[in-house]
Structures are given as structure tokens and as C-alpha cells.
Amino acid sequence: MTETSTQADMTVVVTGASGRSGRRVAEAARAAGLTVRAASRATGFDWRDRSTWADVLRGADAAYLAHPTDVGAPDAAGAVGALAREAAGLGVRRLVLLSARGEEQARPTEEALGEAGVDWTVVRAAWFAQNFSEGPLVEELRERGELVFPAGAVGEPFVDLRDVADVVVSALTSGERYAGQVLEVSGPRLLTFGEAVAGIAKETGRALTYRPVTPQEYGENLAGFGVPEEEVAFLVELFGSLLDGRNARLSDGVREVLGRAPRDFGDFVREEAASGTWVPDPSGRG
Ligand SMILES: NC(=O)c1ccc[n+]([C@@H]2O[C@H](COP(=O)([O-])OP(=O)(O)OC[C@H]3O[C@@H](n4cnc5c(N)ncnc54)[C@H](OP(=O)(O)O)[C@@H]3O)[C@@H](O)[C@H]2O)c1
């Protein structure tokens, strides 16, 4: 694929295609005219089973990599490096990895991608705005009206996943333009988790609150929900570092790549509130 060739004949593998980022990358890729090959366990692709990789990668031009459950998880560097080498061997020319801003634990994964012998781009994202509308944090906010999280009063520029997806698709389709680059993407302004929840409360007319806890208290809560000990230890260390103030800054990757401002958190909240995201389940089952 060159910058001048059409995208109509470009096939892109989208890992995590049923997840939060992958779903939007698949949508943006289809909208750009690409052929999307959705890859997750539901379609027979398993990051933990290398025998499932070749069938998904063979014949593809590019791939989007979102490693579950975290790009800095202990097994991520090995898996991403091995998959990237396999992709290179099968003729896949461009890989775009979703990573996280300020996450030291993710650097070995990024390095493993860079050493695989294939054109690569790393997209380091801020916290997703959609963490408030999809995924593990949503239920307690919607059903119990409270978000318990170890984010203190630190500012975070929540990024809309639609912007992340547009940046990813640009990196997949822009030839050499973003090869070998790390693109950091964030939303347009810093908000504390308390301000984010207050914004959702105002828009929904509900008495929603944010209760900051220490990473250790948060870990104890997770352990109480049956999260395995190793995962709890990883998350306590991860959140303790990611939310210590190092990420309380804006990044200009959305404007740099897309030539426009990133979507604002307030717009995300208005759209999700209008579609009933934070309306509690009347049956109480959540
Ligand atoms: N949350 C944030 O704010 C944030 C910020 C920056 C970066 N990130 C990074 O985002 C990545 C997660 O992406 P996401 O939030 O879009 O994912 P997600 O919503 O958690 O969805 C996970 C996806 O991965 C698939 N999956 C899970 N286990 C799998 C396996 N063993 N093999 C193959 N596919 C598997 C799931 O589908 P199946 O169940 O069908 O397999 C699903 O499509 C992580 O690497 C994280 O570090 C997150």
C-alpha cells in the first residue's frame, strides 16, 4: 500500500474488534473504504494461542493491535513481539499498536513492536472518555450512583475513542507518514475524575458522586470481587503511577494527524446521556 494507491483493496486486521477501541477502529476503517477482518476470540483469534494467528494475518496489509487486558500487562511484550514477527513474515506491512500515555510498564511492549522488522506506529492514548460509558466502571456509577476510583484530584484529558480510532486509521493508511512514530493523543482539556462525574450528574440530573480511594484500598475492593491476586498487584502499581500527576497534560496528536481539535468530554457526556447510558436498570439487576 502506498500513499497514492487506493484504500479499496486494503485489508486490515482489527484485534479487539468487539471491544471499546477496536469496534470504533473497525467502523472508522470501513468508513475509509478498507476491508476489515475482525479478530477476537469470538472470531477464532486468541492472543494466548499462537496457532490462531496465521489464519487471521495471512493476506492482510495492516493490523491494529489492542492487547488485552493491558498493553503493559506482564505477557504483553512477548505476545505483541511474537505476533508482529509473525505478521512481518506473512507480508503484513504496517502495524499500529494502542498504548497508553505515561505507562512505563508498556514500554517493553512498544519496544518489542519496534524490533519486529515491520513498519510500526504507536498510538499512546489518554484515559478513554468511554471508560465512563462502557466497561468495568460503568455499572457502579449507573446502578449505585458512585464511582470509587484511585484518581485523587488529578487532572486527566479524557480522549474520545472516536478520535483515537480516526488517528489509528490515518496511521494505517498514510503510507510512510507515521511509520516509526509515537503519536500521543488526548482530549482538549484536563478534568479531574470528580469533575467528570459531576458533569455526568448535571447532564443526567442524577446525584452521582466520585469517591477517591488509595490504590491499595482500590486493590482490596478488586480482590473482594474475586480479581486474581497478580492482576490486583499489577493494577495497584499501574494506577498508582498513571494517576500520580504525570499525565496531567495535554497531547496534540489528534490535531497533528487529523487537522482538527479533539472532541470535548462535554459532547461525549451529552450524547451518552441522551442515549440513556446512565439510566439505572429498573429491575435492579444492573
Ligand atoms: N481504558 C483506557 O483508558 C486505555 C487508555 C490507553 C490504552 N488502553 C489500552 O487499551 C487496550 C484495551 O483495549 P479496549 O479497551 O478497546 O479493549 P476492551 O474494550 O477491554 O475489549 C477487549 C477486546 O479484546 C478481545 N479479547 C479479550 N481477550 C482476548 C484474547 N485472549 N484474545 C483475543 N482477543 C481478546 C475482546 O473480545 P473477545 O472477548 O471476543 O475475545 C474484546 O474485543 C489495553 O491494551 C489498554 O492498555 C486503555
UniProtKB/TrEMBL annotation:
It comes from the Bacteria. InterPro entries: Ergot_Alk_Oxidoreductase, NAD(P)-bd_dom_sf. This is NmrA family transcriptional regulator. It comes from Streptomyces lancefieldiae.
